[in-house]
Amino acid sequence: MFHQGSMVALATPLATDGSVDKPALANLVEWHIDQGTNAIVAVGTTGESATLSVPEHAAVIEQVVKLVNGRIPVIAGTGGNATAEAIELTQHAADAGADACLLVTPYYNKPTQEGLYQHFTAVAKAVPIPQILYNVPGRTALDMAPETTARLSKIGNIVGIKEAFGTVERIKELVQLTDDDFMIVTGDDATALESMLAGCHGDISVTANVAPKAMADMCRAAIAGDRAAAEAANAPIEDLHSVLFLESNPIPVKWALHTMERCGPTLRLPLTPLASDYHQKVKTALIKAGALPA
Question: Does the reported pTM lie above 0.85?
Fold first, then answer.
């Protein structure tokens, strides 16, 4: 097993001029390590990977690796809708010292299941770093079939999948189709507790950005099969699992982190700041979670 537990899909702090805010990023990394986050996913969807240039993408991963300094694993988001681009980003991450890479299914061009198999096989063969597949149909308009995942799981350095189909049934199917040492993590906070009780190994989480200790506690208990402890840890943060998606991620979580004075509110276009209609809902959930004072 490569890793398990609460793995934060880390937001990338941006300064008011739109550049990466390196001091804020450093503070976030230290906070997550202190709060018990089990791994950091750098420059995934929540990290605004779609609007970072390739040099910025590589630089953020390099900085996170240096800041973490081996204390917990760093998983670099390196997916792309062109196989050559995914290979380039994955090689950058490997050169930077990342522990593994997270590769989303190609988006927009909608390859066949055979195309998906060949895409991920090509990246795995080109760069020997451990690789985690990422299926998120809600964003890519493409669903990687569990049978395709099972087929890819036989490739040595494809070590797991982040499955964000959003149902516990999909997690159970993957558990049945893959070997015990293949890492299955959910990418859906709302179903994470039940998914881990069903055999999933962890959660690559948006909620962990603002409630890292509670997410780490919940994941630990759920993986151990302790439903009561997992539900107790999840209860204060349950509302966050939904309100952080009132608008497209990472819009709400960036606003939340700003409200918590963890980073600035800046997003890159075409993302825009959280609509004022949602401010109170997010704030109420943060207070319930203990992330803001009442």
Answer: yes
